[in-house]
User: Which sequence fits this backbone?
């Protein structure tokens, strides 16, 4: 490498570091949440959720322990079917905390859930990855590590999410060990553990204990499980067992009905919203029956289907309305709220992808969401995480951070002195007020191109995906692993080796 | 053409017609407007606008008639510089109507301005056009006509805007005649006339009179002028003369400060907002001094610049905040409000274009805008109108129409019967409730692709731009000109011929 390019690399690296160093660990929304529905409509939705739980009921399948907890709490039990008097489930949720801290390996990255706080996290759950050069392919552990690194490097992502993608090159019963290790080793922000089996949740907790200490974790949140409901109105034992494992350890659960209206619920939005509210309350209640005061997030993931093909659709107007409405129900529960994300059915990071993603994401922010994972990388209805899409979405998270910071209307911002200096009809580029503010006034996008047509053409007429390709490659090239105590690293690796040695590979 | 393809074409054509026939002439927003700022902040902004008009002042250049109107109304005049006591300009705006009808050539396309109504219109003002096959090139009259036709065919665009693109193949002093003719002949929705010179505004009015009748136009709005302020704090005589021409005829003006913060105003959003408020009030006041009760729209077009290059930027978080705030100021004036649009600096309809466009447009809708032109086609900071972008944007207008229709929370929408029919854990695709609602519950996007990856690949892995190319070509192929009284058409053509014969071509 020439001396010039070495110097440039070292300069670039210090830029990458400093952008991370100045980044907020989480956001605090200064703007009011948007209130779509009035009191009467909200009460009607809550009443309907109560009707569902008392008249239709909800099933917890293959988990007698969970059913027994609800029996003792006063639910009406008929085999696996639970029914609740109106208001009962909501009352069982009352011990859930309204706000709490989630600790990161790096304490400067601790986040606060609830209130007016807002946390962005990466995508979750894709079996495929894609980039514009390599195309779409099954994800590997290397991809998983890459996305952890990109999350670490992004100043606009606060939470690493969990199963960013499925490392399908690792056995199903062992990959959670490599994933949790990657979360703990290649980044230092908060993350989620495994939920695919209770013993994998236990492993996730054990690895977190190596890093954070068993005693610390008895009182403090460091890891979460991402729990989906098997809608309509069913919890399966995989989810409830993982939920109980995290709650029993006083760790977190993010509980989200994932409802595609018309399939897993009736087609109409009010039904979807009320059903989701009923479902999520039962999950929240279960965390509190296992461990009163256990931290939990009220989640929702409500979307639509194409009624000709049955395919899921995202960023649709109906899902926007559902997001706005259910956020109000969560606020009336007084719990941290998760919804939204940069969601799309598009296979590539084209116009459709960004139109749908922006449509899906921005209402969640306006609605007052506290936790938005799936905020970077989603493509193809979640089947794929895209490298270009990831950095494009992350930049949009930066823009949203500027929006939630709001406006301050004071003398300095009103700039009376600038008018006295510039006079009428003249431009303000050179006035002192502009000099005082030009570094901080505007969010600076890196991927959005505002150059003149001629300049853009001469630079190769690159679309946003092509510029994003260059950005994520540069970021990975400049990545430096954050420090870890070598003894802790050794202990983690030892734990993984022992656990892997104790099992045969399972591939399904 | 084979019989099968004839049948398909005829089927397609009837579909295109029926989608237009069922389209609403305008929208009525059921959702509350988003309120970003509190009373104290809003009063502060209004006070600062008053301060600007009393301490700094505003200039009206080369239009002594306009200055004289303000002198008679009590402004303090110093040459071309006008100053106003606090509250004075606002008081002069009080005769402007809060709501009014704009008449279309087809009465079924009449629109209502103000209140909770919402009108979408096409882009305005581009010298260039582009499509993915033909690339970027100067616009011609054929392009202008094509975009009128596409606007006519779109069920989601209610207003034809005005100078959709500049037909640069026609002489500068004559092209307004061909543009107004295209508006009146190739579509039947409301539109804007010429503002580039008073005599061109007079020609626009004269042509409208041929269609609507002179007497009808004395009492009814059928044509508008799009007036921009020469910010900071200057109106030039081109704009004020056109404004006075339309107002004197009791026709409409849409008055919008176009401010790129940091250049035509200080850099900080509160200053931009207060300045825009001051500027637009002066224009509104002028319409009322010319003709009390003349219909006028409170417009704003506030955006940012890239502070490294000075290039304008769109869909930025700062412009979102400005849009949300100034909408509140307009609402306190009680006037129809114009802002927003599908705006972008991107040169092509890629991810950047749709991310920025959605970012720019959706807050305008949430903010309670009444009139959003620039809603379809914008590219390259307005320098280009794109064919693919046009139909992509128009589809998003359809999605927004669904959002503003809001949610109705009643028994039918809550779907209690669907749960009794489906039972727990089963899908709802076949239940009666779904059958009752599947045709109308969800907005149906035509360009957004939700098919599985394999199906999408087999169909050619087309991105949204490629699908959009097919759509706009199909639309133009199926276009049928709306009927017009042949005597009126002849009179229009005769007027144009006489006016063209009266002038030498001017090319600048």
Assistant:
């Amino acid at each position: 490498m020439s001396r010039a390019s070495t110097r440039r690399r070292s300069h670039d690296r210090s830029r990458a570091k400093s952008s991370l160093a100045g980044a907020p660990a989480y956001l605090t929304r200064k703007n009011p949440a948007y209130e779509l529905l009035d009191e009467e409509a909200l009460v009607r939705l809550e009443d309907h959720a109560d009707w569902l739980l008392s008249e239709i009921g909800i099933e917890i399948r293959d988990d007698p322990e969970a059913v027994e907890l609800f029996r003792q709490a006063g639910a009406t039990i008929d085999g696996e079917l639970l029914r609740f008097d109106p208001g009962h489930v909501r009352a069982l949720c009352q011990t859930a905390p309204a706000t709490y801290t989630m600790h990161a390996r790096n304490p400067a990255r601790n986040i606060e859930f609830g209130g007016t706080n807002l946390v962005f996290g990466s995508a979750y759950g894709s079996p495929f990855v894609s980039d514009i050069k390599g195309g779409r392919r099954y994800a590997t552990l290397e991809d998983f590590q890459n996305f952890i690194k990109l999350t670490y490097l992004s100043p606009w992502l606060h939470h690493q999410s969990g199963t960013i993608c499925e490392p399908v090159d690792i056995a199903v019963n062992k990959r959670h060990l490599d994933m949790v290790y990657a979360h703990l080793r290649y980044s230092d922000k908060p993350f989620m553990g495994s939920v695919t089996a209770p013993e994998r949740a236990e492993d996730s907790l054990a690895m977190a204990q190596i890093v954070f200490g068993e005693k610390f974790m008895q009182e403090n949140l460091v890891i979460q499980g991402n729990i989906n409901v098997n809608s309509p109105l069913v919890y399966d034992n995989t989810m409830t067992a993982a939920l109980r494992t995290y709650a029993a350890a006083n760790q977190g659960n993010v509980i989200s009905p994932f409802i595609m209206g018309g399939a897993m619920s009736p087609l109409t939005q009010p039904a979807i919203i009320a059903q989701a509210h009923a479902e999520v309350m039962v999950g929240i209640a279960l965390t509190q029956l296992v461990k009163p005061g256990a931290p939990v997030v009220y989640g929702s993931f409500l979307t639509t289907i194409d009624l000709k093909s049955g395919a899921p659709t995202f960023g649709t107007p109906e899902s926007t309305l559902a997001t706005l409405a259910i956020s109000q129900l969560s606020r009336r529960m007084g719990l941290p709220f998760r919804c939204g994300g940069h969601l799309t059915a598009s296979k590539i990071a084209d116009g459709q992808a960004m139109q749908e993603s922006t449509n899906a994401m921005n209402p969640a922010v306006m609605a007052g969401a506290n936790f938005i994972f799936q905020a970077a990388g989603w493509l193809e209805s979640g089947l794929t995480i895209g490298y270009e899409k990831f950095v494009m979405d992350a930049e949009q998270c930066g823009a949203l951070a500027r929006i939630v910071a709001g406006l301050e209307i004071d003398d300095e911002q009103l700039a009376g002195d600038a008018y006295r200096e510039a006079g009428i009809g003249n431009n303000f580029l050179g006035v002192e007020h502009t000099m005082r503010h030009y570094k901080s006034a505007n969010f600076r996008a890196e991927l959005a191109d505002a150059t003149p047509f001629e300049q853009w053409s001469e630079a190769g007429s690159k679309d946003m995906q092509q510029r994003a390709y260059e950005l994520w490659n540069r970021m990975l090239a400049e990545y430096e692993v954050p420090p870890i105590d070598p003894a802790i690293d050794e202990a983690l690796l030892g734990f993984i080796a022992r656990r892997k040695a104790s099992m045969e590979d399972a591939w399904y």
Chain A is about 45% helix and 15% strand. Residues 411-441 of chain A form one domain. The longest helix of chain A spans residues 269-290.
